[in-house]
Amino acid sequence: MIALAQEPLRLDANAVDYTLLAVYFAFVLGIGFLARRSVSTSLDFFLSGRSLPAWVTGLAFIAANLGAIEIIGMSANGANYGMPTMHYFWIGAVPAMLFLGLVMMPFYYGSKVRSVPEFMNRRFGTAAHLVNGLSFALAQILIAGINLFLLATIVNALLGWPLWVSLLLAALIVLSYTALGGLSAAIYNEVLQFFVIVAALTPLTIAGLNRVGGWEGLVDKVTASPGGSEQLSAWPGTEMTGFSSDILSVFGIVMGLGFVLAFGYWTTNFVEVQRAMASKSMSAAMRTPIIGAFPKLLIPFIVVVPGMIAGVSASEMVALKAGENADVEYNDAILLLMRDLLPNGLLGVALAGLLASFMAGMAANLSSFNTVFTYDIWQTYIVRNRPDSYYLKMGPWVTVVATVGAVGTAYIASGYSNLMDYLQQLFSFFNAPLFATFLLGMYWKRMTPHAGWSGLVSGTAAAIAVFVLGETGVLPLSAQGTSFVGAGAAFVVDILVSVVVSMFTRPKPDSELVGLVHSLTPRESRRASHSGEDSGWYRRPGVLAAIVVVLVIALNIIFG
What we know:
Belongs to the sodium:solute symporter (SSF) (TC 2.A.21) family. Keywords: Membrane, Transmembrane, Transmembrane helix. GO terms for molecular function: D-glucose:sodium symporter activity. It is found in: Membrane. This protein is an all-alpha fold. The protein has a single domain (about 15-35, about 55-125, about 140-415, about 530-560), classed as Sodium/glucose cotransporter (Up-down Bundle). Helices cover about 75% and strands about 0% of the residues. α8 packs across α9 and α12 (about 245-270) packs across α22. The chain is globular. It starts with 14 loop residues before the first helix and ends with a helix. The model is unreliable at about 1-5 (pLDDT under 50).
């Protein structure tokens, strides 16, 4: 019988580790103060004045997603399910990122909208705009709560402070630099945080593989574990989806995760799109998600693999997988590995990496919430026609309100042992129906304003209904399997309702849809420049995307 830890998880950090953390926080706050100097208009605060180069926005694009949920959630999934977790990257991210860059960004950037809900307003009118703005704002507060909860967990593990104290301290840190410099502070910190995260997790992965006897040793140990050899192959992923049929499992992964959830998240989620909108040109905006796709291909090797290692080497995690009453959750996988493997000094670097990931995720939520709430809710429906300086001053105060809301929603996140379950449910509620509305509205000019808002509401209701059926046991699926089905239901219901409503309501005239509908938008306005700063084959979005496609196919073949 494996001896279980009865004490709360603690990380044995010393003065060296705390010094490294202090240096890191000094850099973070310093960037916030420097970014403040370049903020003179609301566009500077909310969209960095649309002046940033593609490599900066590309790294920020991926770092904004490489938050607490990615690190803790994917390592938890790695410990729980193994290699099928790779689908969240190679199937559930990269194809949608390429679609965003090549197809969606010409419409977003070319129309010069300040947010995704503003695009909805131009295409479908105020009802769809308000529904999208309010649902997006709610989603960001809920997701920021996840990042904040995990950031507070690290503070708690380091200092042993109560959760509520840790939550307030963690919230204050992120609030300080986001309120100071707006999106520029968030983006430049995200670039810094990207490199800190990679520097932190790479040694952890190497040390973990060394502990289990290299890759072959990991294969042997996973094969002998309760999950068995199925956890060493990405396909068909039946344990993760909850489907007993291999065919249904593959279909659920490809359609539920790879199409509906992934495209819904990456192409309509303003947290990500905002980074591309901050680029200095159409070409840079298109390249932003494609540049981000390159590290996205490799991140699972420093996130999922450590989770797999923890699942077969950390005694508490081994007990949990065996069904014993361990005092840990799958969310603790990466922390247990850090505790067992890293000496002081390296532990400080790893902790800085974790804190960086949590702050990057939460700052991304806050900065996108700021923009949508200020432009799409406050300026549009509450206080109109004020000078730009008024809305610039609103930014920091909205950040404070969002942070307070995140403190509250962090307690919801604390009730989930695997936060990916919670996150995928949120995506099925908010992102899947939005993608259906966007896709139909961009390619079918007959879709009407009434269809825009009614499809969104109906799709969200369908996803919630599937969630309730899963929670009550009517649908015998795993939590993530339920979210895949819910996303599919939301997409289909949204499309059906939108088509039916469009047949009985009046569409907008063609003249109002130029730049918003594919068939009515001149091809020249959707093309990226290939001259000046955008010249060179390595700056062509199509070429970069083709390289990514080859790499993602190769990875699926090797690890499938």
